[in-house]
Amino acid sequence: MAYVGQLQRKFVEYTKSLYREGIVDKQFTQLHNLQDESNPDFAEEVVTLFFTDSQRLLNELTNALEQQDVDFNTVDAYVHQFKGSSSSVGAQRVKDLCISFRTLCEQQNKELCLRCLQQVKLEYASFKSKLESLFQLEKQIVEAGGTIPTID
Amino acid sequence: MKDKRIQATKNEGYQTMDGSTGNNGGKGEHWKEGDSEKKLTALVMDDPFCSKVEKAYLKSLGVDVHCVETANDAFKLFSDGRSFDLIFLCSILPGINGFMATKMLREMGVQSKIVGLCGLTMEQGRKSFLDAGADEYCEKPLTAAKAVHFLRQIDPNYKPPYSTTRSQA
Prior knowledge:
Chain A: Keywords: Cytokinin signaling pathway, Cytoplasm, Kinase, Nucleus, Phosphoprotein, Transferase, Two-component regulatory system. Chain A: This is Histidine-containing phosphotransfer protein. Chain A: It is found in: Cytoplasm, Cytosol; Nucleus. Chain A: One of its GO terms (molecular function) is protein histidine kinase binding. The complex is a heterodimer. By secondary structure, chain A is an all-alpha fold. Chain A has a single domain (2-143), classed as Four Helix Bundle (Hemerythrin (Met), subunit A) (Up-down Bundle). In chain A, 78% of the residues lie in helices and 0% in strands. Chain A has six helices and no strands. Chain A has helices spanning 2-20, 26-32, 42-65, 72-89, 92-107, 110-143. In chain A, helix 1 (2-20) runs antiparallel to helix 6, helix 4 (72-89) packs antiparallel against helix 5 (92-107) and helix 5 runs antiparallel to helix 6. The radius of gyration of chain A is 18 Å and the shape is elongated. Chain A starts with a helix and ends in a 9-residue tail after the last helix. Chain B starts with 40 loop residues before the first strand and ends in a 15-residue tail after the last helix. A five-stranded parallel beta sheet of chain B has the order 2-1-3-4-5, sandwiched between helices. The longest helix of chain B has 13 residues, at 48-60. In chain B, 35% of the residues are buried. By secondary structure, chain B is α/β, with parallel strands linked by helices. Chain B is 31% helix and 15% strand. The interface between A and B is medium-sized, with 34 and 28 residues.
């Protein structure tokens, strides 16, 4: 089944590139490796849940920062949560941006916070689209009768 | 996932009907082939997303996990007589926050090991948790390695289940 082998190689290469570019970190590996026969879609379930949760947090952040009088405690709490969830899923760049974002919250700088939020949204969108491609590859491998290679 | 842990205890096929041994007063499962007779139990108090991840790591380590989203849900469990070896709670919870929840759990007489979780390293957060009565503090994510560290504090003989398929850092 040369086709399966090809897909698997593509999967491995793509995954490696995600690590190289810092899109994901080893937390993602650990999540992925929690998958087994009784829980074959675990990583995808977790990441999908992250997408839903993130959308909510990004909406809240946008709303909070667009207020006339920004309540930075509220903004801070959302950034805090987003950092927690992005680090739990292994979204390295998103997580790192949250750390910077937090500093800007402490400085209560609305302008810079808004700009940081923009960056977070862009990084998040990139993470989302790349992970969706990765899961698509996984589906193709399984449909072709192959097994998903382990990530080291 | 099959538990391939070497059985150090005798293998006599008894059943724990309600799991009430030691301080594991919670509802235990029926003893099954391959299970240890005494699983460590954990309560996770966090948002649904983080809970899902934390529960998965703890389960993979052979821990029985229960998750709740609010402090009030946790208080109810304890009032109902449940108990857990370990409690992980996030600083941010809807309603009563993690720091206050820790304080109230201690006031209720809960003696389980409490680990406070924060999304971001905050010296203030760490201090707040410890002042409220938490035993430990941990920055998210709660990885398998960090969890093992806490489990060993409860049971020095604790060993993670042998994993045939995947490596766990």
